[in-house]
Design goal:
The protein is about 30% helix and about 20% strand. It is of the alpha+beta class. It has a 5-stranded mixed β-sheet with strand order 1-2-3-5-4. It is globular and about 55 Å long. About 15% of the residues are buried.
């Protein structure tokens, strides 16, 4: 089925869609931070890449991904409708808790499946 919007209009519509969040996963990670006495984190700071948590003093960004977004082979499912679009546009799978160095922040990826 052809899209009823132009490519530019579709992009604007999709950009306006706000996440309902991965609140349960983030709350679980907060509980882990507190249980281990980790302090100094802030949520949803205006930092490039939109990390879920930032530790400003450590220059550490923490991204929390659900099974869909990081391509979990066990729990991640690909949409059946418009499959070619999703295959093209989903980011490549990231390895759980993979620490990398980019720019001025260290980045830590925490995955929903590892927080259960």
């Amino acid at each position: 089925m052809a899209d009823i919007f132009t490519k530019r209009k579709r992009s604007a519509v999709m950009a306006a869609v706000r996440s309902r969040g991965n609140a349960a996963t983030e709350l679980r990670l907060i509980a882990i931070f507190r249980a281990h006495g980790l302090t100094g984190w802030r949520r949803h700071r205006p930092v490039f890449g939109h990390p879920d948590f930032v530790f400003p003093a450590l220059k550490l960004a923490v991204f929390v991904d659900g099974c869909f977004w990081h391509g979990c082979p066990i729990h991640g499912t690909h949409p059946k409708q418009n499959a070619a679009f999703w295959e093209r546009n989903l980011p490549p799978p990231r390895q759980p808790l993979h620490l990398i160095r980019t720019g001025f922040l260290d980045q830590l990826f925490a995955f929903q499946i590892k927080l259960r």
